[in-house]
Design a protein that fits this description.
The chain is an alpha/beta fold. The protein has 30 helices and 17 strands. Bound molecules: adenosine-5'-triphosphate (ATP). This is Protein CHROMATIN REMODELING 19.
Length: 761
């Protein structure tokens, strides 16, 4: 949905010929266009302000055929946290300026100096009045907050800084400018494209480092916070708008204008490590970049340690590392983290920073122990709000720990997603620290993204499998409910153990995706027979007893048994499965129709699934259909990932790329495709939204179509409903104009509730 202003073209930007009214809607400038100066416009004119924001489409069908619902552009579980125990409190480090939460008086005269000049001169001096601690004390008296109102207190501390910063961002007219959407704006103009040209000095032939106008605004936003000594920021532009490029240019400008060459630490998912290195080389070849990952890591580690021990300056500008470095407790990883703590980082930058949504995770704590003393913590994420407000709070606390720290309180309980008032306050206060632009705001020639939900109907065998599973679940639940004193119970929540609920739910999801993911074809007798044949071949190791092999095989699904028989060349009267079995699922049948017709029409497709076992089955499906494909999932070597991406983008004979939503859904540029199929949706719609935007991004020239596959009459439909509801919350918090109170019941239908509803049917 297009907003009510157009992008400012490059020409207009260069010539400063656009009208302020086009960019600062909510607080119209008193100047008429004719008053515009010929020199660079005053700072206030550069806001990309947006007024009312679109509400994400609630997903209500706008047009449909029976099985295929086209929905209007929707606005739209993350990684298991691994354990670590080496979180160190390092209290004797110097407290960084950037980390101390401060309150500033902005010197109005600042604007009269050429801003770039000021930055060059390292003019970071600010009139510091008193720190936030004392400011909050004052306000506590004023507002008489409850002692345990940690959220209120944190917001209160933040409010003062936010107010000053907001003035700086929006100008003096913007006192009333408190809507979250206004963070689309930045009124500050510290650097221009000329500064970028001077800083980047690229060496790649046929490549000019030209920022899009909104990207220049983003870089200015970051520079402003740096200039104001704010120790953190979140760049939350929608996926594919070039956050990587904005961040790299920003780091380059720090060196060029402020004599700040780092060191900087960039942390990202493994899949995009190569891409970061490539973009750094392209945009700022003068930076020395060190990829601290894989086998090279241990070699560097010794050298760097001795370097640091001797107090020498870091022999690099940027270190690139993966999140996994902060998740495990191997000796090597602990040593790595110790090493990273030796340097005083200028900027610690987290890409795909929604990975920090859980402040209790080891990842969050370990990374914070390295980042706490950095001058600045910069978070990049296209999906800052994953599920709930407390997850967003984890990001805020990471960004500015002194401001947003809440100790051990249960944030989940305090940050109630139905508290419209709290959402309003959070929006208002977070605004100045977070810059978020949507594609529809800033890309003039944005290719359309068409959303389709494809409902597929199960065939007899799949339906039978599903019904059997439901029946078994009902029997089990009713017998449990019967044991309870209240026989009128209509819910399984609190009756069945949580694990049991989750197991049943996963079982239903599996069958809705593919019936081969449960064991129905191979009987117990078959399994015993297969075990006898597999056992002497050492399929489970030669030490394993036959009984153990039988037991293990009984827990396998049909597809896994088939694969095992295949790989050990076991022949049996009821041996491996045939091609007809792969088509037992409604989704595979739909793909067998859809993919060849898409290929015929010149489309190239990304297929995402959350499960690698489904990717295995999809590989089989593609072999049966006869389409060429590539595959990328968590088991793909990090060094091979970029090669797969390049191959797919450049070789048009490859029709399909199969990706796991976790490993392939973030950060990758796959603009060679123009179609995305979400085979199985996530409860968390942001995960799918990330996946969609692998090809709906800068560089895409064709309209993009997204298909979501939903198996009719199964829990798939519930997952889709829940995802839509979560998107409503996202719109409420991150975009203005949506009143959460009017969005109906936002409480999530949990797995337990879904299962309870299945009891009644
Ligand atoms: N100003 C620019 N000039 C040329 N190419 C650009 C520019 N900005 C972005 N791109 C290209 O657009 C693509 C998307 O950019 P990038 O990967 O930085 O987006 P992102 O916002 O980080 O996305 P995600 O949230 O998915 O990680 C990349 O291929 C990048 O090289």
């Amino acid at each position: 949905m297009k907003r009510d202003f157009d992008e400012i073209s490059d020409d207009e930007w260069v010539n400063h010929s656009f009208k302020p009214s086009r960019v600062l809607k909510s607080t119209p400038s008193s100047k008429s266009p004719s008053d515009l100066p010929s020199s660079p416009p005053p700072i206030e004119s550069f806001a990309f302000g947006t007024k009312t924001q679109q509400l994400l489409a609630s997903g209500s069908p706008s047009s449909s055929s029976d099985d295929c619902v086209i929905i209007t552009q929707p606005k739209p579980s993350i990684h298991a946290d691994l354990e670590d125990d080496d979180v160190e409190q390092n209290n004797d480090r110097p407290v960084s300026l950037g980390n101390r939460a401060r309150r500033f008086i902005i010197d109005d005269d600042d604007d009269e100096q050429p801003a770039a000049q000021m930055l060059r001169e390292g003019n970071r001096e600010l009139t510091e009045v008193y720190d936030v601690k004392s400011c909050s004390d004052e306000e506590e008296l004023e507002l008489e907050l409850e002692d345990d109102d940690v959220i209120g207190k944190a917001l209160q501390k933040c409010a003062k800084i936010a107010a000053e910063l907001r003035k700086d961002l929006y100008g003096s007219t913007a006192v009333c400018c408190d809507r979250y959407a206004e963070v689309d704006s930045s009124t500050v103009r510290i650097v221009t494209q000329d500064d970028v040209d001077a800083a980047c000095m690229v060496e790649v032939p046929d490549f000019q480092p030209v920022l899009k106008p909104y990207q220049l605004v983003g870089v200015n936003f970051l520079l402003l916070l740096y200039r104001r000594n704010i120790g953190g920021a979140i760049l939350a532009d929608e996926m594919g708008l070039g956050k990587t490029i904005q961040a790299i240019t920003y780091l380059m400008l720090l060196k060029h204008l402020n004599d700040d060459p780092g060191p900087h630490l960039i942390v990202c998912p493994a899949s995009v490590l190569e891409n970061w290195e490539r973009e750094l080389k392209r945009w700022c070849p003068s930076f020395s970049v060190l990829q601290y990952h894989g086998t090279a890591r241990s070699a560097y580690s010794k050298e760097l340690s001795s370097h640091a021990k001797h107090g020498l300056p870091p022999p690099f500008n940027v270190i690139l590392a993966c999140y996994s470095l902060f998740e495990r407790h191997s000796v090597q990883q602990k040593d790595d983290r110790k090493l990273l703590k030796r340097w005083r980082w200028s900027c610690v930058l987290m890409d795909e920073a929604h990975a920090l949504k859980d402040k209790n995770s080891y990842r969050w704590k370990n990374l914070m122990s390295v980042a706490r003393n950095a001058n600045q913590r910069l978070l990049l994420t296209g999906t800052p709000l994953q599920n709930d407000l407390h997850e967003l709070w984890s990001l805020l606390e990471f960004m500015l720990p002194d401001l947003f720290a809440t100790g051990d309180v249960d944030l989940k309980r305090l940050l109630n997603t139905e508290d419209g008032d709290l959402i309003g306050r959070m929006k208002s206060i977070m605004g100045p620290f977070i810059l978020r632009r949507l594609k529809s705001d800033v890309m003039k020639q944005l290719v359309p993204k068409i959303q389709q939900v494809k409902y597929v109907s199960m065939g007899k065998q799949q339906e039978d499998a599903y019904k059997e599973a439901i029946e078994e679940y009902r029997k089990f639940s009713h017998s449990h409910i019967a044991k309870c004193s209240d026989v009128n119970l209509t819910t399984v929540v609190g009756v069945l153990p949580r694990r049991q609920i989750s197991n049943y739910f996963v079982q239903f999801r599996k069958i809705a995706n593919h019936p081969l993911l449960v064991r129905r074809i191979y009987t117990d007798e078959d399994v015993v027979r297969f075990a006898k044949k597999l056992h002497p071949r050492g399929a489970f190791g030669f030490e394993c007893t036959l009984d153990r092999v039988v037991e293990e095989l009984k827990s396998y699904n049909d597809y896994s048994i088939h694969q095992l028989l295949l790989s050990y060349g076991v022949s049996d009267s009821k041996g491996i499965l045939s091609e007809k079995h792969v088509m037992l699922s409604a989704k595979c049948q739909a793909l067998a129709e859809l993919l060849p017709s898409l290929q015929k029409d010149g489309h190239r497709v990304l297929v995402f699934s959350q499960w690698t076992s489904i990717l295995d089955i999809l590989e089989w499906t593609l072999d049966v259909i006869g389409l060429t494909y590539r595959r990328l999932d968590g088991s793909t070597q990090v060094t091979d990932r970029q090669t797969i991406v390049d191959e797919f983008n450049n070789d048009t004979s490859i029709s399909v790329c199969l990706l796991s939503t976790r490993a392939g859904g973030q950060g990758l540029n796959l603009t060679g495709a123009d179609t995305v199929i979400i085979h199985d949706m996530d409860f968390n719609p942001q995960i799918d939204r990330q996946a969609e935007d692998r090809c709906h991004r800068i560089g895409q020239t064709k309209p993009v179509t997204i298909y979501r596959l939903v198996t009719k009459g199964t829990v798939d439909e519930n997952v889709y409903e829940i995802a839509k509801r979560k998107l409503t919350l996202d719109a409420a918090v991150l975009e203005s104009g949506v009143d959460v109170e009017h969005q109906g019941d936002l409480s999530e239908m949990t797995m337990g509730e879904i299962l309870s509803s299945l009891l009644k049917a």
